[in-house]
Amino acid sequence: MNSEENKTKTYTVAFYNLENLFDIYNDHSKHDDDFLPKADKRWTKKRYDRKLFKLSQVISKIGFENTQQPPSIVGLAEVENKNVLRDLIDSKDLESYDYGIVHYNSQDERGIDVALIYDKTVFTVVNSKTFSIYIEDEFGEQDYTRDILLVSGVLHSEKVHCIVNHWPSRREGEKESMHKRLKAAQKVVEVIDTIKEEDPNAKLLVMGDFNDNPSNESIKFLSEKGALYNPMETMLSYSRGSLNHKFKWNLFDQILFSTNFFEIQKDKLRFDEANIFDEKFLTEYKGKFKGQPFRTYVGKKYKGGYSDHFPVYIQLNVSEK
User: Fold this and answer.
1) Which end of the chain has fewer CB atoms surrounding its CB within 10 Å, N or C?
2) Rounded to an integer, what distance in angstroms lies between the CA atom of residue 3 and that of residue 275?
3) b vs e for 17-45, b when ≥16 Cβ sit within 10 Å of the residue's Cβ?
4) 38 - beta bridge partners?
């Protein structure tokens, strides 16, 4: 390797919806009854361990080709608690790396949260907090959903703010539930405004499973009002996305960022590329679902795969010239 090549450092930032990473123990404060050894899904220790092994294998490979390292920062969705995160970072393909965890319990009715894991050798957490989204159901009662997680820290000597999301689902229908995702978008913009009050030039990374595509109203609102760039806008096609529903691709998993990541300055983080991590080993290899994410479950049927979502990622370069 010549000295010129030594002058650029690359960091990977990823997001991954893990598809119901529950442990096998009953938590009476959560709706985890489907994920117990004696439930219909028969969520046993063997299946849990297999899922951890598979997920750690995936995470270790995201962006590895360019960096020879696993991701510096990974936003996660659908984790039950801190214990499953500890088990994840202690799994075979991640245990040799020095990953830290940021997680808070939310009041989500399904008992799943967002979280962030990070390589402690390159990212130092300065502070973290959560923000709840107040939504009412059709009866005027509070509809609990996942909190928004803010983690501020230092990556390659530069402060960055990571905002991790898992917005309300489309369960009642896309149009019927749209107002909930718009509420979530408004809350994220509020968080961004608060950060910018302290530091107008703050570097922001907003990631998540938004349950909306880049062209939907909530994401358009987020990128415009939050002054964010969405590198995933052009990635969704009839043959590619981060999840597939009824044989139609969606790109609900996205990473947006503040436009100051385009500035080229010595020793400053700048955007290099974005992608969906949809390697062949993550897909169904035959049958009518060929090419779709290889899931852990389809309904109550155990498939033994990874997740119903592909991870997404961006890479940031630092020029030391």
Assistant:
1) N
2) 28
3) bbbbbbbbeebeebebeebbeeeebebee
4) none
Which residue bears the tokens 């117990």? 36
Give the domain ranges of the chain.
5-319
Sheet arrangement for strand 123-131: 123-131, 148-155, 158-166, 203-209, 253-258, 228-229
Take residue 51 and report the two structure tokens written for it.
């899922």
Token output for 68: 């020879």
Instruction: Give me the residues paired with residue 77 across strands.
Output: 17, 114
As given in the structure block, the two tokens for residue 81 are: 């608690």
User: Per mean pLDDT, which range of 30-39, 115-124, 245-254, 312-321 is the poorest?
Assistant: 30-39
Strand runs labelled E in the chain: 8-21, 73-79, 99-103, 113-119, 123-131, 148-155, 158-166, 203-209, 228-229, 243-245, 248-250, 253-258, 269-276, 297-298, 301-302, 312-319
Query: What are the pLDDT digits (tens) for 225-242?
Result: 999 999 999 999 999 999
d(C-alpha 303, C-alpha 298), whole Å: 7
Chain position carrying tokens 């402690």: 120
- DSSP 8-state secondary structure symbol assigned to residue 167: -
For residue 163, what are the β-bridge partners? 150, 206
Burial code (b: 16+ CB inside 10 Å, e: under 16) for 194-209 equals ebbeeeeebbbbbbbb
- Quick: pLDDT tens for 242-255: 999 999 999 999 99
Listed residue (191, 190, 166) closest to 180, CA to CA = 166
Strands 253-258 and 203-209: antiparallel
| H-helix segments, the chain | 45-61, 64-67, 82-89, 174-198, 217-225
Helical pair 217-225 and 174-198, crossing angle rounded to 10 deg: 10
What's 5-319's CATH class? alpha beta
Task: Look up residue 168 and give its two tokens.
Answer: 């309300």
